[in-house]
Amino acid sequence: MKEKIRVGFEGDFQFREIEIAAGDPAPWDPSQKFSVVGTRQPRLDGKAKATGEAKYSIDVRLPGMLYGRILRCMLPAATVKSLDLSAARKMPGVRAAIALAEPGEKLRFAGQEVAAVAAETPDQAEDALAAIRVAYEARPFVVSLDDARKSGAPLVFEGKTETKTSGGDVESGGKNLARHGNVLGPRSTVKGDVDAGFQKAAGVVEGTYDTQVQTHSALETHGLVARWEGTELTVWASTQGIFDMRDQLAETLQIPVSKVRVITEYMGGGFGAKFGPRVEGLAAARLAKEAGAPVKLFLDRKEEQLASGNRPSARQTVKAGATRDGKLTALQLTVYGNGGTNGGTGTSGPVKNVYACENLKVDEYDVFTNAGPGTAMRAPGHPQGAFALEATMDELAKAIGMDPLEFRLKNDPSAVRREQFRVGAEKIGWKDRDARRKTSDPEILRGVGVGAAVWYNTGGTGPRATVTIHKDGSAEVEHGVQDLGTGSRTMVAMVAAEELGVPLDEVSVSIGDSRLPFAPDSGGSTTTPSSAPAIRRAAWEAKQALARAVAKEWKVPAESVKVEKGRVSAAGNPPHEATWAAACKLLPSEGVAATAERADNHEDAWKRFTTGCQFAEVEVDTATGKVRVNRVVAVHDCGVPINPLTTESQIQGGVIQGVSYALFEDRILDRPTGRMVNPNVEAYKIAGALDVPEIDVTLVSVWDGINNTNSVGIGEPATVPTAAAIANAVSHALGVRIRQIPITPEVVLAAVRERDSKGGRS
Amino acid sequence: MKPFTLVRPTSLAEAARLSAASDAEIKAGGVDLVDRMKEGIDSPKTVVSIVEIAGYDRIEPGPPARLGALATLARIADDAGLRKAYPALADAAAGAATPQIRHMATLGGNLCQRPRCWYYRLEEFECRKKGGDDCFARDGENRFHAVFDTDLTCCCVHPSATGTALLAYGASLDVVGPKGKRTLPIDRFFHRPVKDPTRENTLTAGEIVAGVAIPAPAAGSRSAYRKLKEKESFDWPLVETCVAFTLSGGTVRGARVVFGSVAPTPYRSMAAERALEGGTPSDALAKKAAEAAIAEAKPLSQNAYKVTLAKVELERALRQAWA
Ligand SMILES: Cc1cc2nc3c(=O)[nH]c(=O)nc-3n(C[C@H](O)[C@H](O)[C@H](O)COP(=O)(O)OP(=O)(O)OC[C@H]3O[C@@H](n4cnc5c(N)ncnc54)[C@H](O)[C@@H]3O)c2cc1C
Fold it and tell me: A488-500 and A527-554 are packed helices; what angle lies between their axes, rounded to 10 degrees?
């Protein structure tokens, strides 16, 4: 059915005719008077989490449960010569032992899995690992990106490239790419003609930018508890995708999908690294089968750092040109990304999708090293790409003598983001940023920088929800989505409460179980835009079921019954009217229920990227090189935010993770031995409470009409521009370009030396 | 963690006797010891807990001050009398670790804690401090390692903040051992790894620090403690500096200059002390002392920046002290 809807954002609306699937409500209009959506709702499970009452998967303890532990090879490259589990099997308390690598198999990073045991206590399992007899032959290895690119470098993959990817990972580029030594690619994108573009430019800049490896470091580690009952397997997992987990377990263990149940009641974060059972999850299921008892296998912090994934490092060279009046004429990115034994390290999202440029060339190479595999991490490739792109934009603005913000506004094709830039600039005090560089302390300089966020507005089809309206007027939602900690549980309840017109505290929610209606994986900021439309539709259909039931009682045609907030009525002679509660009393004892599936995205909706921008103000101690981030102003588009409170907290989390990435985090590999020297959260430095700046969040609501709730995800865009804005702010403070993160005292001191040796401004 | 027996003697003398065995270790707050046990780098058979022994948590600010070894960093940081007479010690205690840790950490444990060198702290590296043959840091990842005394057998840095301050104040330690008591000047407490890198202090088997005595500062005394960390929360310092001296008739006398987190022991810079002696407080004097101090630095492959930090921080500490 064609319907005319309004799309756009405050001050800039337009009408658009779109096709709406039969049985699906039209997207909410900007004039909609919400009673629940858009209100600031604390998480429904906030208290349970704060008091410890909430039991995460890592807290699960079953009667007779065993503890699993994994043996890892601490050589960065080795071939398994022999593996003998018999002595380990005889150790006290040991009930199962399995091989995870076979003799002859090549191991490619320090920390790779070799075998696993399950025992009655964690200590017994640990002792049993020591009893496993394994012999390795060490092979030559390479751990740094520079060394890996050299000709004659030890090969991470001697034969074919054997990368392992999981859900959410960036495509490694397919089988067709050539690999030379350890370097795979390039994956290339060409638009227009960059050489011609550079010719036309009045100013051209080029720079090389280095970013480090960041680890996900979610509070809850990877793992699961596996229990077999006959041929049925139940797992309590810490996962971003319970249905994906279910399907992969069934496929790998060769049992019917119907025999696998995955439960994730509460979850302690994932950031992209928790898809599928992975090695440890499969090991737990196999150990449990062998032992005939439930097995719990969660990684410890060290294993988490070594082998659970990371954001690849990158060396990016960006070249860009612009005309004197500030139009980009050419943009070129060459990136060598290092995801250890994994590919998919590209960073071109921002270069391709933020600023408009006719001439574009991108070449992305994956460089393999003997290091823990990279995997999807909060906006894969984007924080890296934004750092290089936004530094380039500043440099180029300087080269053509234009204010960096004005330059961005000239080249930004997104009306929403242009507005966001203006809002943010006002809040951070962009205009007098130069005047504020000097502080009362001559050694401390202040700087202000900016970066743009881009993400992809893509909810997916498939999710289903069941909404039940009870005889007493209360309601229930069943939807199998996992809540990573982002607030999905609350979002589910809010959407149903809004559509039904029932108070939020009368809606109860069941989530986190693969026996519930299908729900999306939580990756790519797609959870809310995938789930919310299914829930709204189910609630809408449940209301229709209510109308039919009431119509029968009132003996009127079903079409004449109107269900509005708190009120059910039917025109006619005589007219009928009842409160919600009174109408629901007319229901049979089982109430009414509807299960609905999310409709497809509206192809003819207002297509756009999810946008945002962040401004950072920093203070830099030029004598010690220490950077303090004072303030981050974050202006984001989250479609029409369902719960502004948790939306803002997602953005705060993204900013904090970005501050941490910009200044502190770094996986450090020991070059001589190839081992990580900071596999913990002490020497692997993560921003703490005192390092967090003041964060000022503004949400710009956007109605794009792409789904019935106009909802968009925010987890990823929130962290895309933070490091870029901070690095630009530090560069502004110092008057010299920062070309690498983390921006440690050492990096700043080197930049100050470079500036002073060139006689730059101070 | 390996199984162990926990014993809880009621006197220090008994604790000294029990901990003299080579497979026994003293536990005070346990912040450091339990961490090492969990990481598998220490597996004592007997853990001798002294934390409940009465009478060793006193703080008598004096001056002269007497502190029991079981006084926590939190209490040392909060004691008004100590802060008045020994501000550098109060600042050192207040700035160490995190609030939770400071409530557990004891003075004795802080002085006797083991270094944080990542090679030492990871069981897969059999480094010299653990009796192995190599110092992995020397040619490895040494951005946070020593920049002074780097030509010895180990280039870790000593982590004790209170040790840095107490060395500047010329404190002495009351030690109880299986054979009785002795007084140990702090100048002779820390052990330079000239030959033996497996220990950081000169206590002998079974000896326990019972308390610390700090002499009364002379008239006109000044002191300051500073630390520089990458992160403000949960981080270890890159450089600590502590200075103590008297200002008499406008000139600096008897200066003690100590750096922390830059050498295998808290590091006294005699060169800086000599440069300060008899000088008149000025930015130029601070600079002269700092330059004298870092002339002795021998940074490793990745940590020359720490020498710059030591210089800047010493100048700032001096300016802070005589301001
Ligand atoms: C994240 C983090 C940051 C930190 N930052 C800092 C910092 O900035 N500065 C700093 O100084 N410290 C820092 N610490 C270390 C912390 O202060 C020490 O671990 C703590 O002071 C140890 O005290 P404890 O009483 O718990 O010692 P324990 O762990 O009980 O003992 C430590 C060691 O000393 C021995 N020992 C204890 N008491 C005595 C005694 N009376 N006589 C003889 N031997 C004894 C024990 O046998 C053991 O080997 C940090 C720790 C952490 C975890």
Answer: 30
| 3-class DSSP assignment, residue A174 | coil
- B→A interface, C-beta within 8 Å: 1-3, 116, 118-119, 122, 124-125, 136, 139-141, 143-144, 228, 230-236, 238, 305, 308-309, 312-313
Q: How far apart are CA A620 and CA A738, in angstroms?
A: 12
A233: three-class secondary structure by DSSP: strand
CA distance A306 to A303: 5
> Residue A225 — pLDDT band, cuts 50, 70, 90?
very high
* Cβ atoms of A424 and A614 closer than 8 Å: yes
Region A641-661: mean pLDDT is: 98
Residue from B98, B117, B226, B234 whose CB has the most chain A CBs within 10 Å, to mutate = B234
Please report which helix (H) or strand (E) contains residue B134, including its range: none
For chain B, which domains are there?
59-112+157-214 (3.30.465.10), 221-322 (3.30.390.50)
Centre a 10 Å sphere on the Cβ of residue A538 and count the other Cβ atoms it contains. Answer: 29
Q: pTM of whole model > 0.90?
A: yes
Sign of the CA dihedral running A128, A131, A133, A135: positive
Interface of A with B in 164-193 (CB under 8 A): none
Report the alpha-carbon angle A56-B235-B105, nearest 5. 85
Say whether pLDDT at A632 is over 80: yes
Note the maximum CA span of chain B. 61
What lies within 8 Å, CB to CB, of A573 at 6+ separation is none
**Pocket test residue of B34, B89, B113 for ligand 1, highest count of atoms within 8 A of CB:** B113
- Nearest CA-CA distance, residue A48 and chain B, Å: 23
Helix-, strand-, coil-residue percentages of chain A, each rounded to 5? 30, 30, 45
Distance CA A687, CA B231 (A): 7
Q: What is the β-pairing status of strands B172-177 and A94-99?
A: unpaired
pLDDT higher than 60, residue A626? yes
At B239-291, the pLDDT tens digits run: 999 999 999 999 999 999 999 999 999 999 999 999 999 999 999 999 999 99
Sequence length of chain A is 762
Q: Which domains does chain A have, with CATH numbers?
A: 1-33+418-458+602-762 (3.30.365.10), 68-139 (3.90.1170.50), 460-597 (3.30.365.10)
Q: Specify whether the CB–CB gap between A533 and A539 falls below 8 A.
A: no
Q: What is the DSSP letter of A473?
A: S
Instruction: Tell me how long chain B is.
Output: 323
What is the DSSP pairing of strand A260-263 with strand A232-237?
parallel
- How far off is chain A from B181, nearest CA to CA, in Å? 37
**C-beta of residue A44 within 8 angstroms of C-beta of residue A490:** yes
Distance between first and last Cα of chain A:
64
Element (DSSP H or E) covering residue A733: helix A722-734
Q: List the structure tokens of B84.
A: 């008045």
Residue A762 pLDDT more than 50? Answer: no
Rounded CA-CA distance A646/A483 in Å is 12
A554: phi then psi, degrees, rounded to nearest 5: -80, -10
Contact A529, A458 (CB under 8 A): yes
Helices A242-253, A278-291: inter-axial angle, 10-degree rounding: 50
> Is ipTM strictly over 0.85?
yes
Report the distance separating Cα A241 and Cα A262, nearest Å. 9
